[in-house]
Amino acid sequence: MDFIHSQLATVQKQLSWVQTEQINWKLYVQLFSWTVTLFESYLLLRQYPLYSKKSPPPALQKDFDQATFDKSQLYGKDKAKFALFSGLYKQTLDSTLLQIGFYAWSWKVAGQLIGRLGYSPEYQITQSIAFVFILFFLSTIPTLPLSVYSTFVLEEKHGFNKTTSKLFVTDLVKSWVLAFTFGAPFLAIFLKIFQWAGDRFVPWLMAFMISFQLIMVILYPTVIQPLFNKLSPLADGELRKRTEALAAKLKFPLKHLYEIDGSKRSSHSNAYFFGLPWAKHIVIFDTLIQQSKPDEVEAVLAHELGHWFFMHPSKMLLISQLHIFSILALFPAFLHAPPLLASFDYPTVVARNPPTIVAFLLFQMILTPIEAVFEFEADRFAVDLEDRVRATGGEKEAEGMADMGDRLGRALISLHVKNLSTVWVDWMYSAYHHSHPTLAERLKGLETFQAEKMKKRQ
Predict the structure, then answer these.
(1) Contact 306, 381 (CB under 8 A)
(2) pLDDT in tens, 285-335
(3) Which of 304, 375, 384, 426 is catalytic?
């Protein structure tokens, strides 16, 4: 522990200039955020002309009839226009709030609010919670029209929306209640660790945040998810038998197999797994069951279990923890930096003794400035599944799995057709925005994996 603290102290020494240099941090944040927004707008403008193409890529022409392709092009064009507008709108809103001193004003209002409740400024954690929720609500309200338009105009126009106005409002209220129910205690403990540990807070805060994530893994499916969707045991039948057999062959620790009523909000489809290492749950959207054959759904699940086999969630968790650690390691220098708060319009009396939550929020703004490989690896897993199962369970266990790669390809095509997904994608736009390779890239990859598999057998 002392070694960690000594190394962190060295980092803080190198950043000591932050506490004295009069830097216009607000201008830096404005320039950086606008640069990112304009770059994303440029990518959309690169992608937009592809929605005018009259036919799908050659590799997909046999899978898309002309009417479906035309619908997907129109859907993509409408989404691109909305994304361009909403991106510029949100950036203009954020930039305006930053420029007029909204954050400093919110801290002041939070202090006045808790004062009326009998709390003095010494109750910094109470004021911090009030501050965060003032920011949350007042910055959320101006963006509500975008959510309404996306759900009831854009998705409705293209036949995907199933959300009623009552359900929309109910979901919104539930989200706000959950944000306060879980956010307030989290924030209180988060700030209490700062008070208790001082500048030696990093390892303690890391331990708390990892513990919180594990708690949420348990609470999300048992407490939060049922507030929005109904999870029912997957009905007996071919799909259940295929899924349970697949899990058994891979020694996947399947505890529950659910069907979720995703169709109550949208006709888009999905499947995923979650849970602790020794007890996993698979969730399949009812829309996926309706849109795909059981053997195709099985292939999609084979891909998802490939993520589990190669420990992709654990690797992403490790990457996120390293990212969080690096952020926390840099933060102490900004925690004691009056010039930082002064640059964002906070009065001298507040800047002189920076509140932890304010300093952390501004630090995040300054710092705000990586997963397609995993998808190809999971696709290869589905293709190689027959050989893997044969090696561990024998010839009988591997029966019926020879065409898993072909089934996955058909399932991907079917999902793209049903969801009117974009099939013409600009390479730069895809590299920046997409966590998954494009459909054409994945189909080409599946063909390559199949060829390599056959070559090994020769």
Answers:
(1) yes
(2) 888 888 888 888 888 888 888 888 888 878 877 877 887 887 788 788 787
(3) 304
